[in-house]
Amino acid sequence: MIRKRNLQECHSLYNLINDPEVFPYVRYKCQSYEEYLFVTKQLMVEEEQMTCISRTILNEIGHPIGTIDLYNIENKAGFLATWIGAPYFGQGYNQRAKESFFTELFLEHRIETVFLKVRKQNIRSKKAVEKLPYAKLANDLKPHVYASINPTEQIYDLYQVERSDFLDASEGMQHEVAT
Questions:
Q1: Chain Cα centroid distance, residue 125
Q2: pLDDT of residue 179
Q3: CA distance 174 to 53
Q4: Is 13 in contact with 36 (CB distance < 8 Å)?
Q5: Hey, how many other C-beta atoms are within 10 angstroms of the C-beta on 121?
Q6: At what angle do helices 163-178 and 93-103 cross, to 10 degrees?
Q7: Which stretches within the chain are classed as H helix?
Q8: DSSP reduced 3-state for 108
Q9: Where would I find the N-acetyltransferase domain in this sequence (predicted)?
Q10: pLDDT tens digits for 157-174?
């Protein structure tokens, strides 16, 4: 479902990122394949420096369909960025990728908090986040973080996923499957 980034997948991902349904919502708005390749190399370096964790989202047959990143990692917290190519919208990839990624972040990397900033007008992303039983709207819970992502006007809603909430929800899901 997810794997570490590699440069061989950049061409496929660059083609997906340029779709007008995807491009406005991606973190890095690369104007050329070479720029996308450069940004991917930078992310790989940042991961070595432990300031970012970046993964490729794969479909069932192993083709790259998007990316998921934790960036600006400080004090066991960071911000989530994710995108999926338009042909794969509405097929459950986003939620499955987040669950896999959160499991890795919270269990392997000992991250405590993941913040998600979502444009208030991005209804698709807001609905995706609100489907996650462990995600909480944090505009009022973390006013300093909310203010930092909205320095001049309120463009983003802030959500957070706490390690303990995710692990509690995961235990509940495993219990439901087992019974």
A1: 11
A2: 38
A3: 26
A4: yes
A5: 8
A6: 110
A7: 10-17, 33-48, 93-103, 123-130, 143-149, 163-178
A8: helix
A9: 7-132
A10: 999 999 999 999 987 555
